[in-house]
Design brief:
By secondary structure, this protein is mainly alpha-helical. It has one domain. It is built from five helices and two strands. A two-stranded antiparallel ribbon has the order 1-2. Strand 1 and strand 2 form a beta hairpin. Helix 2 packs parallel to helix 4. The longest helix is centred in the last third of the chain and has 20 residues. It is globular, with a radius of gyration of 14 Å.
Length: 107
């Protein structure tokens, strides 16, 4: 899936992320697993800065952390840990303006 995403110039994240945010409210565990896999794939693409979209996705991801399905909780936790690791690595002050994370400029 990562190869398709990175090879596609048609994926407009500014349009895709709001739709993804809407879908994060579904309760079907298979759909949730699919959505988390999309977030993980997008986060693994070097040219995509998912940290800038994290505030939009955070509410839905936090809801998934309380899912009754253990696999959903674990996958969500792992996806959030990856984002946290990126934030720790990105310690540059250029990424924070007026106390708000504005995206990673360290890559």
């Amino acid at each position: 899936m990562q190869d398709i995403v990175t090879a596609s110039y048609a994926l407009d994240l500014d349009e895709f992320i709001p739709k993804l945010r809407e879908y994060l409210t579904v309760v079907n565990p298979y759909k949730r697993q699919f959505l988390i896999s999309w977030i993980s794939v997008l986060a693994s693409v070097p040219d995509i800065d998912m940290l800038q979209y994290l505030p939009e996705l955070l509410e839905g991801l936090m809801g998934m952390l309380s899912d009754t399905n253990r696999e959903i909780r674990q996958a969500t936790g792992k996806a959030l840990q990856v984002q946290q690791a990126h934030m720790v690595l990105c310690h540059s002050s250029c990424c924070i303006v007026a106390g708000v994370f504005t995206g990673c400029c360290c890559w």
